[in-house]
Amino acid sequence: MYDKLKRVIEENKHIVFFGGAGVSTESNIPDFRSQSGIYSKKTYPYPAETMISHDFFYEHTEAFYDFYFHEMVYPNAQPNPAHLALAKLEALGKLDAVITQNIDGLHQKAGSKKVLELHGSIHRNRCQSCHSFFTLEDMLKQKDGIPKCPNCHHTIKPEVVLYGESLDMQVMEEAVTAIANADVMIIGGTSLVVYPAAGLLRYFRGKTLVLLNKEVTAMDDQADIVIHDPIGEVLQEVVLHNTKLVD
């Protein structure tokens, strides 16, 4: 399957990548649903899914931030071979877009330019009152409490999509367009159970569907290439170590 994936990447120029939490686990950022994932945390008074909801943010803001800064923000994380391989494919003119459910910003850190963040980013934060913008670095200076705007002293909220909130329709539309125009779609590091993001797959009409995930998914029988190895290992072999892919 590795050789088949190599050929697909070598022979096509309109590739789209759709990724989830498994893309960043090799950067030591936990996923959500595995045995060691964020949803398995037992040290908080509420379930993790409750603590990252819209209502919880407004009703228990301090508890939200305690969970958020300890479990969802990894400022020292670095891109792994998966991120680097995708950035290389974009630089070679082969990858049209990265569509990600992750909020960590590692694709951009690796050098990717066209990144569609379905669930927002920890690197974008705004005051709920005056709408001033703040970076992650600004937020980390106040991580022991509720981050407050220095201009108007109201609460700052990260621009991440919490449970109970709608996705950004412009980002969704761009993702649909990218997928619809792709010849190859590579899905990586996602269980494909989170909607509406997982529903984007129905817009793919291209030639080759590739699925890279350590666990079996409901889409395995619909993919042309299925590899159940760590995504960083796979993309390192088929992209970074592929001498036929040259600038």
TrEMBL record:
Active-site residue numbers: 119 (proton acceptor)
Function: NAD-dependent protein deacetylase which modulates the activities of several enzymes which are inactive in their acetylated form.
UniProt domain Deacetylase sirtuin-type: residue ranges: 1-247
GO CC terms, sorted: cytoplasm
Binding residue positions for NAD(+): 21, 25, 32-33, 101, 103-104, 119, 190-191, 213, 231
GO terms, molecular function: histone deacetylase activity, NAD-dependent; NAD+ binding; zinc ion binding
Catalyses which reaction(s): N(6)-acetyl-L-lysyl-[protein] + NAD(+) + H2O = 2''-O-acetyl-ADP-D-ribose + nicotinamide + L-lysyl-[protein]
Cofactor note: Binds 1 zinc ion per subunit.
The protein's name in its UniProt record: NAD-dependent protein deacetylase
Enzyme class: transferase
Annotated Zn(2+) binding sites: 127, 130, 149, 152
Source lineage: Bacteria, Bacillati, Bacillota, Erysipelotrichia, Erysipelotrichales
Family statement: Belongs to the sirtuin family. Class U subfamily.
Domain of life assignment: Bacteria
Gene3D superfamilies tied to this protein: SIR2/SIRT2 'Small Domain, TPP-binding domain
Catalytic activity, EC: 2.3.1.286
Subcellular location, record wording: Cytoplasm
Pfam families from the UniProt entry: SIR2 (PF02146)
Keywords: Cytoplasm, Metal-binding, NAD, Transferase, Zinc
Gene from which this protein is expressed: cobB
InterPro entries in the cross-refs: DHS-like_NAD/FAD-binding_dom (IPR029035), NAD-dep_sirtuin_deacylases (IPR050134), Sirtuin (IPR003000), Sirtuin_cat_small_dom_sf (IPR026591), Sirtuin_class_U (IPR028628), Ssirtuin_cat_dom (IPR026590)
Binding positions (nicotinamide): 32, 103-104
Organism, as annotated: Longicatena caecimuris
Cofactor: Zn(2+)
